[in-house]
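Regression test attached.
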Amino acid sequence: MDIEQKQEEHINHFVNQASNLDGPSLVTVINDAISHPSLFAFSEILSLPNVTQLQGTEYSRYIDLLQMFAYGTWSEYKSNASNLPPLAPDQALKLKQLTVLTLAETNKVLPYDGLMQELDVLNVRELEDFLINECMYVGIVRGKLDQLRRCFQVQFAAGRDLRPGQLGSMIHTLSNWLSTSDNLLITIQDKIKWADRMSEQDKKHKKEAEEKLEEAKKTLSLKSHTMSRGGLTYEAMRMRRCSPNLVE
Amino acid sequence: MAEASQTQTMATSSSGLTFKLHPLVIVNISDHHTRVKSQSQPPPHTCHQQDNSSSSSSSTNTVAANGSNRVFGCVIGVQRGRTVEIFNSFELLYDPVTNSLDRGFLEKKQELYKKVFPNFYVLGWYSTGADAEESDMQIHKALMDINESPVYVLLNPLINHSQKDLPVTIYESEMHVIDGIPQLIFVRSSYTIETVEAERISVDHVAHLKPSDGGSAATQLAAHLTGIHSAIKMLNSRIRVLHHYLNAMQNGEIPVENSLLRQVSSLLRRLPAIESQKFQDDFLMEYNDTLLISYLAMFTDCSSTMNDLVDKINVAYERVSRRGGRTAFI
């Protein structure tokens, strides 16, 4: 969330600059915004009326470029390179960082091979350097690099600009999350009730066993009274007969 | 004096000071009390030394009405405006002969504490007991030259199960006119507990070590689950707020705010929180281990019960039991 705070002043700065300009000077502002090392959010600039006006003119390529930076990835840029203006090296770097963010949208565990393909990087060392220096130190992603399994586990990724349709899916995800947590709450309550019920049953069982023990003690003390009056009772005789079997 | 002692602790403070007490002070006072109590009653195998130690300890400690010794000490902290925050405390030696606290020791300790905590001042003193006593006013007055209005923290060491709040009271001194004579009496003040993160963690840790009423495994489980339940409930309500907000944004009731949407999308990307294969493996392994261990414990329990039963039967139905021509029935 701090990446958002860092970006806020830059966004305001560029929005102020862009709202007063037009035409070619607007193009320079757009280029500045794209190359700025800490700016990753472009939808505010995109929504400015001056910028949308550029759509039909000869500078519409820059609008497309801005949209590419807002929503697209490096491979999309490559496939469309003919229609879009060429990128300066820091702009290319920016686009690659944004690509990582997009990839992190769908999977939490990004395999190195996929990353290398998407980012046009040839070896693992370069990929790791890129991830560490350009993504983690800047603060747009946080995660763990697992070299043995050759994957990058993402724990946190900054948000990219939302395409118009994505809001619906976000709401859907949120409502799923809500229903899951509701179910979980109900399950926990049931478990608590179960635990209480079990402990009640256990206590009852113990009490019954103790009562039986007391009763047995009482009846036996009565019996020992009758026994002491002389002679063995019938049970005692039977015990004597079957005790050899038992002790075996 | 008799009527003064009755009205001594009934009034409530009107000075308007707010008191904040840190748990460290309460733990210190109770620790001091417990130490003194256990040192004056050595374990039974040294009972022949007990007479010496008990006689020496009774001469240096005042014995309160309920028989346990009173302990004394000093509280230090910060006073900012109308808020008095009591951070720490240390022990003092009490001289029953002069009914006062050891002044030289207090000053030495104060100097030492000043070096480590330059902001802390002596705010008052503490003691244990059920209620404030007459003699306490003397000590209170003696401290008034260090701090013009000291506070008196009293901890009641008797455990009262029905009492729900802490047995700690804070008294201030006020000049009241009783029977035409202006006198200094103790008045109660209310206080709040204020914790630093470290204090909160340690108190939490101690509280979870042993359930408060020694409940069975079921109550411990229920307590643990209740904790989790309330945590998830809070998470649930917060997500509901976000959900509502996004819905409103979609319906157009609220202007679209991009930075917030970005943050929400980054939050949603953290879900599912744990799903990798490795987690499943570790989780199942630990689950199986726990089940195995409880199974094994159950087995051991059963076999020991069985052993006892066999012993009892052997004793009960021994072949060789011809004493007096009668078998033992039980």
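Expected vs. actual: identical. Residues 40 and 160 of chain A are 7 Å apart (CA to CA).
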